[in-house]
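[Meeting: bench + compute handoff]

Bench side (C.D.) handed over the final construct sequence. Compute side (W.E.) agreed to return the predicted structure before the next meeting so the bench team could plan truncations. Sequence as handed over:
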Amino acid sequence: MTRLPDADWRTRPGLRRIIAALMADGGAVKVVGGAVRDTLLGLPVTDIDLATPLLPPEVTRRLAAADIKVIPTGIAHGTVTAIASGDHHEITTLRRDVETDGRRATIAFADDWRDDAARRDFTINALYADPDTGAVDDWFGGLADLQAGRVAFIGDAATRIAEDHLRILRFYRFVARFGHGALDATSHAAVVTARQSLKSLSRERIADELLKILTLPDPRAIVGRMAADGIFAVLLPELDTGFAAALDRLIANEAAAGAAIAPLRRLAALLPADAAIAEQVASRLRLSTRQRKHLALLGGSRGDVIRPVRQLAHSVGVDAARDIHLLAGDPAAVQALSGWAVPELPLKGGDIVARGIAAGPDVARILKAVEAEWVAEDFPDATRVAELVDQKIGRVSD
């Protein structure tokens, strides 16, 4: 039998307290999904999710009795979040699907581990482990698929996709993360066939999954695969014809500059250099106001690398200036923004009035002219600003 290797997360005090509470008096609990998969692959584990045949009220009662805080995060679907010793863990009662419409499922609680595993998406995500012995339960060949780098739906692929259409995009993301070699032919054919059903999903769910794909270390191959499969024709028809070259250039520039991955910057690389199109995409994907403004800035300013990067940052902000230069192919300029924030002009209108200029249009003109030269001179200190003010006042007096 396959067992989990030793891992730091398995001995965390908070997790052990939760497990002890749920296993007492004949209870049962297993670690499920990503934590099992990633531990077997030797990858870092962030979320440790638990499954139990105990019903939510009993889960809540046991945890509360052990002085563990419980938050009913998804109680209608049998999920609570337990907080113990600073750790957060989701605990879900075993379930089986009664009815699905591709967006949400009607579920019933179950007491059979295999029934719970059967409603999951991919075989590699349907692995359960005993929290004490580490023994792994695998009903659908997930261990073999994990070793082969194969991402495959559990059972009938079309049925799994019909249960939740977002699984189409999850297929591509998991292929990019865990796949190697040829794609599982049956699963691949099923997502391509079902691609029009993406239109039934909420825009927020599509945006969340698309940005997760673009957050991968190198999403170029999977983005190209999605384009070839017609996925973007459904969810991102604005895809630029030169997206592959733009994404190649951007990822090379990110590496050269040591820049952190930013999914919105990569989304901008997929789109034409057009602020109106960027606005259209951001609006359709229901991005936040901040994200929408940022994407529009990148769309409208992609060629604006004539100005030095700090001057550009004064106009559009540090984040947008950095992204514009990375998109345009100027990674060296990014170093000029490292640890730097746009300074505030050390001059107010009152300072000019104090020098004898009457409040009014002349003050505004002097202030604007001083700021323009201050920016052009790369933001010198207050001494130089005072010299600039003297020069401008002299010209006004003349």
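W.E. noted at the follow-up: The two ends are 92 Å apart (CA to CA). C.D. will use this when planning the next construct.
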